[in-house]
């Protein structure tokens, strides 16, 4: 087990290094950071001094090494647009994005899995048909249109929920949370639904398909023949065995949630990392872009690692197979 | 000609097409969207780019069935008195152009690299497939945003504004090539060991020639399905980029740009400015996707 974790971490290192190389190349070659830092008027001597000071006269690989060293310590330089340390900017906005992503993922799982189980068990009931039709809408609507429609209905026509911002937030150390105030919770509802709807329908369809598959197998028939109650058969035997593909997809979709948070945050003016990133793309603010890229890569690699570890927790066959030296 | 039509009407493809009502409806919707977009300059009721014909007193007219609406403007007008229906038709033109070009670009790039990776193999294959792996770890919209951002930073503003349309096409194309490369590489690995390829090699046909005129025609089938399914995604990616304000320039608004502009008027009650372009976008993407799904199933002999 331990050896497996170590080997997986070693496998993800090249990916992170490749992404770091791209980030660094962006940082070093796109635009002219020296000219941006010096402003309008400068002499060649000033320029040379700054270049030497920043280490830009050193060979490429030395600079890359310094960049990676700084990145590991969370040091990404100053934003061109806001003239503040990138690390501070990201740390300020991370809580907003993480709370939003957490709620969206929670919503997708807590609603999607039961809906999937229900539609799998009672495939011909009218409620199942309704769920399936509804899921078709969730899959085909682009994220930003879902957000706009929700705003139109709940904020403009009904006027019950706010359409932008985070509401009031409470500071807990460096973390700001919207969970503790009424306006904060209300502000979270529409963005979380917008972000989670696609994942919800995806999980529902996946669980349904897997349930239909599993319910046909012999061991389910055997469990029924033994006279086990429906509850045990459905949840103890059937649902458990649908979990491997569900975990894979949920893991991959967590990444998608973070990517589409950019869109959701733009629609709802949610002050998170996604909004920061899109403003940076618009303003060609390379330090923020490269830091965000590295951070996202780190998140993706971590998620993939956790998903791999969860397989072992969920599927005993993998553990046994490995003990025998694989298939 | 008549024989060709008869042969087509007798084919499995046409048979499975007529047997699926959803597919027929989506084909009709897709045809309406595409014709409306392509023929916009000739059939649109107004020209939204003709500043002389704009009248500010016509601004914010609701759709024609509303009491305050004007019959002249079927789907209402926007803040500058532009006809929403005409703006949608011109916008769909840009959306379709970008989506189609990006898909063609991704196909060309993916097929070329996939063919090389599969046929040449070795270090080139490992390198290209690693790049694919890394890129597929990230959602394609993120890659497109990043490419767009880098190009934006690398080019001076005036130059960028002029070629913004190509930048978007490039960004979306780059974000989607791995799908094509994977598909082509897979089939190339199977084809390269077949007898006809060995025969061609034995009689001394050069490598490039074998790849292009012997292997390529036999691996291109699945690519068409991937491309059809990808068209919907590319149109959506363009709409998302434009909605985020980093897509096509405002002088050539696409459906995504129209939705973004209309979004500002949602709160003052002028919902039609943003909702109708949204409906058009959904109709276009959904019908193309359903056609792609059908094509995939119809061309898959296992499902017959």
Describe the structure.
- The complex is a heterodimer of chains A (327) and B (304).
- Chain A is mainly α.
- Chain A has a two-stranded antiparallel sheet with strand order 1-2.
- Chain A has 14 helices and two strands.
- Chain A is globular and about 85 Å long.
- Chain A starts with a helix and ends with a helix.
- By secondary structure, chain B is mostly helical.
- Chain B has a single domain (12-303), classed as MetI-like (MetI-like fold).
- In chain B, 73% of the residues lie in helices and 0% in strands.
- Chain B is built from twelve helices and no strands.
- Chain B has helices at residues 2-10, 12-18, 21-38, 40-43, 84-120, 122-137, 140-154, 157-191, 195-202, 207-243, 255-263, 272-298.
- The longest helix of chain B has 37 residues, at 84-120.
Topology:
The complex is a heterodimer of chains A (327) and B (304).
Chain A: H1 2-29, H2 33-38, H3 44-54, H4 60-72, H5 86-121, H6 126-140, H7 143-157, E1 170-172, E2 175-177, H8 182-215, H9 218-225, H10 230-241, H11 243-268, H12 273-282, H13 286-314, H14 316-323
Antiparallel strand pairs in A: 1-2
Chain B: H1 2-10, H2 12-18, H3 21-38, H4 40-43, H5 84-120, H6 122-137, H7 140-154, H8 157-191, H9 195-202, H10 207-243, H11 255-263, H12 272-298
Helix pairs in contact in B: 3-5, 3-12, 5-6, 5-8, 5-10, 5-11, 5-12, 6-8, 7-8, 8-10, 9-10, 10-11, 10-12, 11-12
């Amino acid at each position: 087990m331990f050896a497996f974790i170590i080997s997986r971490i070693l496998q993800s290192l090249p990916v992170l290094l490749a992404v770091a190389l791209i980030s660094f190349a962006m940082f070093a070659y796109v635009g002219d950071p020296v000219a941006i830092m010096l402003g309008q008027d400068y002499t060649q001597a000033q320029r040379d001094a700054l270049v030497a000071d920043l280490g830009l006269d050193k060979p490429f690989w030395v600079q890359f090494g310094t960049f990676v060293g700084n990145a590991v310590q969370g040091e990404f330089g100053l934003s061109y647009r806001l003239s503040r340390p990138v690390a501070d900017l990201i740390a300020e906005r991370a809580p907003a994005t993480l709370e939003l992503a957490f709620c969206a993922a929670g919503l997708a799982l807590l609603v999607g899995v039961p809906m999937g189980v229900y539609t799998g068990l009672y495939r011909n009931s009218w409620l199942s048909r309704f769920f399936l039709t509804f899921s078709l809408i969730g899959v085909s609507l682009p994220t930003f249109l879902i957000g706009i429609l929700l705003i139109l209905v709940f904020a403009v026509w009904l006027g019950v929920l706010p359409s932008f911002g985070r509401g009031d937030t409470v500071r807990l150390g460096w973390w700001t949370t919207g969970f503790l105030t009424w306006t904060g919770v209300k502000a979270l509802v529409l963005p979380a639904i917008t972000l989670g709807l696609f994942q919800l329908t995806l999980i529902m369809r996946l669980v349904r398909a897997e349930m239909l598959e599993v319910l046909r197998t012999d061991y389910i028939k055997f469990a029924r023949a033994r006279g086990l109650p429906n509850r045990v058969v459905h949840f103890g035997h059937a649902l458990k065995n649908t979990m491997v593909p569900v975990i894979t997809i949920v893991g991959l979709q967590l990444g998608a949630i973070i990517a589409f948070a950019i869109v959701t945050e733009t629609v709802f003016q949610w002050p998170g990392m996604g909004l920061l990133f899109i403003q940076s793309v618009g303003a060609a603010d390379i330090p923020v872009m490269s830091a965000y890229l590295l951070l996202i890569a780190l998140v993706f690699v971590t998620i993939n690692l956790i998903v791999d570890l969860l397989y072992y927790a969920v599927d005993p066959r993998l553990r046994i197979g490995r003990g025998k030296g694989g298939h | 000609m008549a024989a060709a039509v008869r042969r087509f009407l007798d084919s499995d493809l046409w048979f499975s097409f007529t047997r699926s009502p959803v597919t027929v409806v989506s084909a009709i919707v897709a045809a309406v969207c595409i014709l409306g977009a392509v023929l916009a300059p000739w059939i649109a009721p107004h020209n939204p780019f003709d500043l002389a014909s704009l009248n500010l007193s016509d601004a914010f007219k609701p759709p024609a069935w509303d009491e305050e609406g004007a019959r002249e403007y079927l789907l209402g007008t926007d803040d500058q008195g532009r006809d929403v229906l005409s703006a949608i038709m011109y916008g769909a033109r840009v959306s379709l152009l970008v989506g189609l070009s990006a898909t063609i670009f991704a196909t060309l790039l993916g097929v070329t690299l996939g063919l090389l990776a599969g046929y040449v193999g070795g270090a080139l294959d490992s390198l290209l497939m690693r790049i694919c792996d890394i890129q597929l770890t990230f959602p394609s919209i993120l890659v497109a945003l990043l490419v767009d951002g880098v190009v934006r930073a690398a080019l001076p503003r005036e130059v960028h504004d002029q070629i913004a349309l190509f930048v978007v096409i490039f960004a979306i194309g780059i974000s989607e090539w791995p799908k094509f490369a994977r598909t082509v590489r897979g089939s190339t690995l199977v084809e390269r060991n077949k007898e006809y390829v060995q025969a061609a090699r034995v009689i001394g046909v050069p490598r490039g020639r074998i790849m292009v005129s012997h292997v390529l025609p036999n691996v291109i089938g699945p690519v068409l399905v991937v491309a059809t399914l990808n068209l919907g995604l590319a149109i959506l990616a363009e709409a998302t980029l434009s909605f985020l304000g980093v897509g096509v320039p405002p002088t050539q608004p696409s459906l995504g740009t129209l939705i973004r502009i209309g979004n500002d008027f949602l709160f003052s009650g002028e919902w039609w400015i943003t909702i109708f372009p949204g409906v058009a976008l959904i109709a276009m993407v959904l019908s193309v996707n359903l056609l792609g799904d059908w094509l995939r199933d119809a061309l898959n002999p296992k499902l017959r």
